Structure of formate--tetrahydrofolate ligase:
Amino acid sequence: PCFVHAGPFANIAHGNSSVLADQIAVKLGDYVVTESGFGADCGAEKFMDIKCRYSGLKPDAVVIVATVRALKMHGGVFEFIPGKGVDEELMNKPNVEGVKKGCENLEKMIENMKLFGTPVVVAINHFEADTQEEIDAIREKSIAAGAEDAVVSRVWLKGGEGGIELAEAVAKAADKPSDFKFLYPLDWPIKKKIETIATKIYGADGVNYLPEAERKIDLYTKQGFDKLPICMAKTHLSLSHDPDLKGRPTGFTIPIRDIRASVGACFLYPLLGMMRTMPGLPKVPGWN
């Protein structure tokens, strides 16, 4: 069965299905696959530090989905701008070195998930233009970064049959012992929690707080909301706050322009850079 219950985007919210959906699924199946939106720097971190904390559920394994074409993009082979077309010739042309370069991003995603003490499997979502050499490069890089395995998924072509090898790899990883842990305790100050996510998950050198963010930190601390978890609002197009920084950027500082409280949902959400909280708008909004 498939439960679709709640689906806020992981760049501006937690990016996960509801706790209720997962609790029902756990009672009905031997294995439950629950999605966390965008990369392991967005929805997956929030799944671990927010959803697992409140639900009491702990993952037995993490599956990171990667594609040859996305890794080419992170390797600088072609440019991707939301709302605009891509150079399909460059995207589909074999480029093993470009894939290897782009794997820097995937390696960081694997490292991020291993911070939580959970086994990782990489699912390579196959496209017709992918070559075996490119797939082999992803598998080699993934395993070297600490993944249990990296397996091609051809579910789009063969249905369930195309996912058997992946399912077996995930089941094998889930049977391994894990040592699940949160990235931070809730009793840390707001700034320390933000800076831990920024440096350990995004790879930032540090954090810069604008005056409004400083004011909100003081306010929420006085109000007792400083013990809530952090739900960063950041671009999904980069590990950093800047959507133009691809691959595994280094040498950057995260600007926090504001921090807001979702008291009912029980988290604080800092706004990184120019991130907006209106989801789903196309490049040219319909009202324009």
User: Anything to note?
Assistant: The chain has a mean pLDDT of 93. Residues 204 and 252 are 5 Å apart (CA to CA). The two ends are 41 Å apart (CA to CA).
